[in-house]
Design brief:
This protein is α/β, with parallel strands linked by helices. It has 2 domains: 213 residues, Rossmann fold (3-Layer(aba) Sandwich); 73 residues, no CATH class. It is built from 9 helices and 10 strands. A hairpin with an 8-residue loop joins strand 5 and strand 6. Helix 1 crosses helix 6 and helix 6 packs antiparallel against helix 7. The protein starts with 18 loop residues before the first strand and ends with a helix.
């Protein structure tokens, strides 16, 4: 019989009704926006490491492998996967933070989720927010789009008020779903917020999505972060991506069409005033249904789009 998992805290930190932000690398964070957001907070706000799981208990090392690193002088070091809990004090906000970060566990999901909830309660956590991201038929232009889920009505209402659409996904899932389930069973308010990443821009980081996640967390949990550097990085990345996409006219056409259909462009935007403005009233795109052509303009065919995206990726790899 497996022994009980624990996140053993050397001592209980003195925190003010902290909010636990959790992100795990893997299934639920395909675009690395959630883990990137938590990593940013750990570095920016000087988080303190409180505890970590025993990796032998939750990882299968043939799946989540350790990394070998070479140090100065030729010495080598193994970096083992680790799921860690950090504390972050926010003097300018009414709440402090607990930050959970690491690779998604391979083993003992239910026991691991129970241990996280127990540690959060020991630290006086007032809520849990899980961050993630996934590839979707959205554009990098304009406002980033998010989706969310919550077990309790108050959290669902708060997400709706912030314009975060409720996720309707059903199917195979990741560890974060197990964590949210454990929170619900223990009546700990919890929500999951995921960034919808442009599927044509894989293989690069998207700081604008990490910014969007943390900006939403600020409003959802009444917190205050220093996001200036992340915002600047996101704008610069979006600018560079736009320049690169424009080199593929058919892909650029598609990106603009998706932005209009998804309502990501603000009123008065130059693009909205152009020939594509009629697309803004098009029906919502479903992940399993390709966008319908609008009248008054010829759109690229599916094969054209595949060729344009492949060309984009080839160019990106050459630049990298």
């Amino acid at each position: 019989m497996n022994r009980q998992l624990e996140l053993q805290l050397a001592e209980t930190p003195a925190l003010r009704a902290p909010v636990l932000l959790a992100a795990v690398a893997g299934w639920g964070d395909g675009a690395v926006a959630g883990t990137g957001a938590v990593q940013y907070l750990i570095g920016k706000h000087g988080a303190e490491r409180l505890a970590a799981f025993d990796g032998d208990e939750i990882y299968q090392y043939t799946v989540t492998r350790p990394i070998t690193l070479q140090r100065e002088g030729g010495e080598r070091e193994l970096a083992w996967p680790s799921l860690e809990l950090h504390a972050c004090r926010l003097p300018d906000a009414p709440h402090d933070l607990l930050l959970l970060l690491g690779p998604e566990p391979d083993l003992r999901w239910r026991a691991c989720a129970e241990a996280i909830v127990a540690a959060a309660r020991r630290c006086g956590a007032s809520a849990v927010i899980v961050l993630g991201s996934y590839w979707d038929q959205v554009s990098h232009l304009g406002q980033p789009l998010l989706s969310g889920r919550a077990a309790d009505a108050a959290m669902r209402q708060a997400l709706t008020a912030l314009g975060v659409r409720e996720s309707r996904y059903q199917g195979p899932t990741g560890f974060t779903a197990a964590l949210l389930d454990a929170c619900a069973r223990h009546e700990l308010p919890a929500a999951g917020v995921s960034a919808r990443a442009p599927h044509y821009a894989q293989g690069i980081v998207h700081p604008q999505l990490s910014w969007a996640l943390l900006h939403t967390v600020e409003q959802l949990a009444n917190l205050r972060f220093d996001l200036a550097a992340l915002d600047e990085a996101g704008r610069e990345q979006a600018r560079r991506l736009t320049e690169r996409v424009k080199e593929e006219p058919k892909l650029w056409q598609y990106v603009q069409m998706v932005a209009a259909q998804q309502g990501q462009l603000e009123a008065g935007n130059d693009f909205q005033q152009g020939a594509w403005h009629t697309l803004s009233a098009a029906p919502e795109i479903r992940p399993d249904v390709p966008p319908r052509p609008a009248t008054g303009g010829e759109l690229p065919s599916g094969q054209d789009m595949v060729e344009a995206v492949e060309s984009f990726f080839r160019g990106s790899r050459r630049e990298g």
